[in-house]
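Whether sequence alone determines local backbone shape is best considered at the level of individual chains. We regard such an encoding as a compact summary of how the chain folds. The sequence in question and its structure tokens are set out directly beneath this paragraph.
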Amino acid sequence: MSRRGQRVQDARGYVLHASAWRETSLIVQGFTREHGCVALVAKGAKRPYSVLRPILATFQPLSLSWSGAAEVRTLVRAESCGVRLLDGRAMMSGWYMNELILRLLAREDPHPGVFDAYEAALDELADPRRRPPAGALRRFEWLLLDETGYGQEGEPPDFEDDGGEPMLRRRLRERLDALLETPLRTRKVLMDLQRY
């Protein structure tokens, strides 16, 4: 990478979280298909007449452009690519998915499958004829665990079947118990690295 840093144009993405930074700016945690989770500073986004202020909303598809070489890049432009309305339980489910992505995915590690599943889950949650959000959430959780290396072997269950939830939880708990019983290899890895 050059000294000037990376410049990305029109990456399709979403705002997962935004927090105040200084007097007029925001730090935006974005999620894009090609670049994964990215931290962006949106300068002046808190000003009353900022063009970014109404656009940087969660759950809305965006076209994001940024530049910079630091860990937190500078948001150059954001454009809306549609409107998706979530309310009540659907919005809480969306916040839950955002939190999972922020906690489980490494920064700037693209996961196109997770991005597509996130988008599909948001579309399902925004559908006014939707069923309860449990099926969309289970499907997203299953794929997220699979993409991050904690998935289950075998065929995925029927996520729309209400009787399948206890079975899914039992399978995930068994997998977690197996992981907890397996000793960590951290010390061995560190010792191996010291030899180099």
Summary: The helical segments are 88-104, 112-126, 134-147, 164-181, 186-194. The CA atoms of residues 36 and 111 lie 6 Å apart.
